[in-house]
Amino acid sequence: MKFTRGYWLNKPGVQNFDCVQIREIRAEDGHIYLYSVPYPQDERGMGGPVLEMIISSPGPDIIRTEVWHFMGSAKKVPEFELDIRETPLQTEEFEGGITVKSGDTSLVITRSPASFTYYYKGKKLTNVGDKFGHSMISYMQTPEGPFMRAQLDLDIGEKIYGLGERFTPFVKNGQVVDLWQEDGGTCSEISYKNIPFYLTNRGYGVFVNSSGPVSYELCSEVVTRAQFSLPGEKLDFMIIGGGDPKTVLHNYTALTGRPALPPAWTFGLWLSTSFTTNYDEDTVNEFVSGMESRDIPLRVFHFDCYWMAENEWCNFTFDPKMFSDAPGMLKRLKERGLKICVWINSYIGQKSPLFKEAMEHGYLLKRPNGDVWQWDLWQAGMGIVDFTNPGAWRWYQDKLRNLLDMGVDCFKTDFGERIPTDCVYYDGSDPELMHNYYTYLYNKCVFELLEEYKGKNEACLFARSATAGGQKFPVHWGGDCSSNYLSMSESLRAGLSLTCSGFGFWSHDISGFEGTAPADVYKRWAAFGLLSTHSRLHGSGSYRVPWLFDEESVDVVRKFTKLKCALMPYLYTKAAEAHGTGVPMMRALVLEFPQDIACGELDRQYMLGESLMVAPVFTKSGDVDYYLPEGVWTNLLTGERKEGGRWVREVHDFKSLPLMVRENSIVPIGSNCDDVEYDYSKGLRLYLGKITGEARCDVCDMYGEKFLTVTARNEGGRITVHFEGKAEELKVLYEGKEFTVSSDLSDVVI
Question: Is the pLDDT at 43 greater than 80, yes or no?
């Protein structure tokens, strides 16, 4: 939100009261307590407004600042579920201020004029921006009510990333970003997943601890500052140090939650009925048989909305007119090696038999007058489940439990945004704060049931909407994209923004959701989608099986599906690392190469783990421009070598794309190209990129447990490959040559 009209004037009716002078600093119980006034003179004051602050550390390298105007305002819920690991601040007072430290992150506070400057290992990160000597932590009086605001300086060349799934340019400098959940499609600034956390290329992140409508002015109101503001009487923000983007994400997800580890089967190919298409069991069998006959390994079948009768979403019952024997159908599909996913929602249409049940028990959101909150958008007369009600929580889980008993393996949790604010929650939660937070409760409810029913590391939901902490309930789907190259690139930008926001896994609708893609778009998108963490063929009004596009589409989907199966030892190891560290599987190059200035704005290519770089082709002709950081890179598909530190222009057919192995990398490749679940330790091939120094990799099994560590070291042109752990029929691939490893895993010398 903007409060000014240029550098000199406020907007009409706006008055700001800044933290200009700190009159009192008190260190107590590992916290710092500050009392600030909005005037510079050293005089006795009467009246305010004044600001009170508490500086603390909820974890190593994280410095939290809580700022109040009126501290007596009622505490509002919900609040993010944070893993607070109270870390006593180290303090050192000096004349005119105090230095506080958590881990390697420190904050220097001066009294007059007030200033707040952050450092990591002695290197300046940022400071609270000042204007005419005023520290820009402010209480704002506006015609719309009270607001709290802070501004942080940005250095020359500093770039901002994250803030959730955003389809706007990847670098957020110059943008206005309002965190308010809505569905708007990839062509829109509206987002399904709003995360009040951003990351910069200077080695720190900023988390605003509020689920409400946080507004960001990122070099937009003041061109050298990042400003965030929110309505109310309190501001709570955290500076998260780390020195490099990956370490910052590690620290951020330690606070908000690590991504859960999805089961290995979720990395296989998903096929959906699509959204509004007509389908029954015969249609499903036709699709499944078509994939089998064409030798395309299919792992998951997804039933979208119309598995339930029209206007009865949600009744959690297969439509008997279309599926006369639903339990038998699911059993037959599972006998063919498929996992089953069904679409669910948190709204209950009035025609659903469950509506009256939920209404009578008080399980739906209400209006202030006590009526059930209803509208006709999405479903006629629909109400929305109130997950703040423990009874509604259990009731909803029981409905899903029946489906799990029937054979369903996971759920696609649609909706979760466009939640009303003119409503009353069972536990008295603030509707403004609940609007973005609702999706967290919804997905938590479903995920906890899956974890209880399936076991830890066997649970997976496919979520559409998210807020901070939502990464704990993977996987997250990006949408809704259109069926063209522009939307393909929009989707990728959104995915990279989301993974810069602490989310480890991401997927999207291959070839687009809205409309039907021409065959060339389908084929290019298939290669991209099958080299994402999760891969789903899904559309709106048309099916997405490849033979409906052209025969070459079949070949492309087959090739890249089989490639993904073979890459599972590498991919699932990276998944386990994302689960353990919070560093995403699919990541922007700036996360991996923060010192390479050219990587700062790259949004048409990405790293898949730290060893593979993918550059999707966004043209029918196959022209692609991509950047290679320093080093020698090897195309995994062709073996061709490229020197890095430069841009490369190539032309690729539909069965190819730049899939580059980084120098001093080891990529473990499995022996099975027909499934994602198999014994990765048998018949493993270790693909070595150019080894100029030392390379190391761990390899995990399909449960995320490490079974092998491999190192490769170049000493004077002689490469020694060393193994620790266990594996059978192991081979090393280097520069087009194959080396067999002995059964006792003795070193291989190349």
Answer: no
Please pick, among 130, 217, 417, 701, the residue that the annotation labels catalytic. 417
Give the mean model confidence (pLDDT) for residues 457-481.
93
**Chain-centre distance of CA 47, in angstroms?**
45
| Cα–Cα distance for residue pair 609/263, rounded to 1 Å | 18
Is residue 610 flagged as an active site residue? no
Examine the residue annotation and report whether 480 is marked as an active-site residue of this protein.
Answer: yes
Short-list 125, 139, 137, 150, CA closest to 22: 137
Using pLDDT thresholds of 50, 70 and 90, give the confidence band for residue 134: low
Q: How far apart are the first and last CA of the chain?
A: 61
**Cα dist from 356 to 140, 349, 383, 451, 519, whole Å:** 46, 10, 10, 29, 47
Q: Is a pLDDT exceeding 90 seen at residue 468?
A: yes
Residue 163 within a domain: yes
* Residue 45 in this model has a pLDDT that exceeds 80: no
Question: What pLDDT shows up at residue 453?
Answer: 98
The radius of gyration of the chain from alpha carbons, rounded to an integer in Å, stands at 27
22 and 139 part of one domain: yes
Over residues 18-30, mean pLDDT:
93
The rounded percent of the chain whose pLDDT value lies above 70 is 99
CA neighbor of 126 nearest in space, from 103, 107, 139: 107
Q: Is residue 33 packed enough to be buried (19+ CB in 10 Å), middle (13-18) or exposed (0-12)?
A: middle
Catalytic residue among 61, 236, 458, 480: 480
Main-chain dihedrals φ then ψ at residue 369, nearest 5 degrees: -85, 0
Is 674 contained in some domain? no
DSSP letters along 575-627, please?
HHHHHHH---SEE-HHHH-TT-GGGGG--S-EEETTTEEE----SSS-EEEEE
Q: Domain holding 162: CATH number?
A: 2.60.40.1760
Whether the predicted pLDDT of 132 surpasses 70: no
Contact 221, 163 (CB under 8 A): no
Nearest to 495 by CA among 587, 384, 411, 559: 587
- For 111, the token pair is 């009294």
Q: How confident is the model at residue 32, as a pLDDT? A: 97
Domain that holds residue 95: 4-256
Cβ(714)–Cβ(689) below 8 Å: no
| H-only helix segments in 389-430 | 390-406
Spell 273-298 as b/e; 16+ CB within 10 A means b: bbbebebbbeebeebbebbeebebbb
Q: What is the dihedral of CA 437, 442, 443, 446, to 10 degrees?
A: 160
Burial letters 513-537, b for 16+ CB under 10 A, else e:
bbbbbebbbbbbbbbbbbbbbbbbb
Residue 618 pLDDT level (bands cut at 50, 70, 90): very high
Environment class of residue 320 by beta-carbon count within 10 Å: exposed (0-12), middle (13-18) or buried (19+)? exposed
Let me know whether 47 and 146 are in one domain.
Answer: yes
Taking the model in full, what pTM does it have?
0.97
Which of 239, 256, 273 is the endpoint of a domain? 256
Percentages helix, strand, coil for the chain, rounded to the nearest 5? Answer: 20, 35, 45
CATH at 556: 3.20.20.80
What residues does 626 pair with on adjacent strands? 648
Residue in 18, 61, 414, 458 annotated catalytic: 414
pLDDT 10s digits, 363-411: 999 999 999 999 999 999 999 999 999 999 999 999 999 999 999 999 9
